Prior knowledge:
- It is a single chain.
- With 170 residues, the protein is mainly α.
- It has one domain.
- The protein is built from five helices and no strands.
- The protein has helices at 3-35, 62-78, 83-106, 121-133, 139-162.
- Helix 1 (3-35) runs antiparallel to helix 2 and helix 2 (62-78) runs antiparallel to helix 3 (83-106).
- The radius of gyration is 16 Å and the shape is globular.
- It starts with a helix and ends in an 8-residue tail after the last helix.
- The chain crosses the membrane at residues 13-35, 64-95, 128-161.
- It comes from Marinobacter suaedae.
- This is CDP-archaeol synthase.
- InterPro entries: CarS (IPR032690).
- Keywords: Membrane, Transmembrane, Transmembrane helix.
Amino acid sequence: MDQADGELSLLKILLELFVMLVLANGAPVVAARLFRRKWAAPVDGGRLWSDGRRVLGKSKTWRGLAAGSLSCALFSWAVGLGFMFGLLFGALGLLGDLLSSFTKRRMGLDSSARAVGLDQVPESLLPMILAVFWGLATWWGLVVLVLIFTVANILFSPLLYQLGIRRHPH
Length: 170
């Protein structure tokens, strides 16, 4: 394999990983639209933290975790990265999203409140760390993809809101 083929292969994998980041975060939104209240049990079970606020919030559901993880697993399997890698990648992306929600609740922010960086970095960083240790990405690839995902999320969320796909403009 020459250098051009190697670079093309690296770009292909980074594109696939980017698609998986989008799937992990987008599939729960699509599942909520399709199934409405069905299987919408909140991950935190409605529990409150010691500060009197919800642990995560009502929009973080088991249905969303399943949808995001499975969509990544199926895509990953289809492109040859493996079902288990995709399942773990999606689950880590959603774990990052749960950590963001937990942090936002502790800061007194509503689930729909905008928190630039906090809303994007954990959900892209955690799965990309897996990709590095799985041998699919480099540390530089991780940095680039986290930055691209963050910028894309900030730029495209208002558009998705205008199209009626998202409930909030961020």
